[in-house]
Specification:
Helix content is 42%, strand content 20%. By secondary structure, the protein is of the alpha/beta class. The chain has 2 domains: 5-70, no CATH class; 81-281, Vaccinia Virus protein VP39 (Rossmann fold, 3-Layer(aba) Sandwich). Helix 1 crosses helix 2 (28-41) and helix 2 crosses helix 4. The N and C termini lie far apart (62 Å). The structure holds S-adenosylmethionine. The site of S-adenosylmethionine has 23 residues, from loops. S-adenosylmethionine binds next to loops.
Amino acid sequence: MKTSNVIIKFFADYVSSQLGIIYSETNYYQLETRLQEVAKLMNLNDAEELYVLAQKGFSPQLKNLLLDFATNNETLFFRDPPAFQAIERVIEAESHELVNRVQPFRVWSAACSFGQEVYSLAMILDRMRNLLPASGYEIVATDVSSRALKAAEEGIYSEMNVARGLDSFLRDRHFLQQTTSNGDIEWKVRPELRRGIRFLNQNLLDSFDALGTFDLILCRNVLIYQTTDSRKDIVKKIFNRLRPGGTFLLGSSESLLGISEDFETDRFERATLYRRKDLSKAS
Ligand SMILES: C[S@@+](CC[C@H](N)C(=O)[O-])C[C@H]1O[C@@H](n2cnc3c(N)ncnc32)[C@H](O)[C@@H]1O
């Protein structure tokens, strides 16, 4: 049975208030499918029954499921390879300062989804360890979806997911092959690679103050779902978490045009990087 627009709008408004994600009416069909999945997981027949339940209040279970299912978690290893090559160039260029530094090189993967972005970063930083401070690196990986975050922390990927972006050399170096009870092959990240990564639940609409200061922040393929005002607000908060000169990356189809003028734009071949301006030096 088709769910009424009143019900879908009710949940779209809730998702928007919690995540900033905007579902326009043309995308209601997507939300409808996701509501049906949530209803099923809550042993309900359909979105209408979910609506009746939600009228009584959003329990933590319902809230978590809605946040898990209302988000698009599409990701892959080394998504947009030029961006990762550009990160390598930045580290090479800054290595003379980094090697003499006491604090570790700090990276934040904001909206890390199932973790492929985080482990891609870790594989690069592991290889470039001799260009980093002796204290190494620290990656903070955050997402608002507890389902995605749990999977990211487990770091187990199917053959199909591994085939999306990871070559066999890096796969064998950083992942251990295991077999599921169904006989399927899967790959589990080695503990050595996970050691430098901290996984935290963080909503981009909330304060970032507790996260500390970073050398590099990736916030890719998530701001597209936000309103312009919300993008401006999130980017301002990201600015405040970057050290002056620190690097900020968006997804390949995103840009800071009309969002912020607090960053210099650097192009490395086909990738765009943003560098935090030192506003204290501005005239
Ligand atoms: C399309 S994935 C992008 C993953 C990765 N950054 C990439 O580019 O491959 C978007 C992620 O943003 C997360 N997300 C959506 N809204 C969010 C919010 N308000 N706060 C934190 N994470 C959010 C979703 O849970 C999802 O995992």
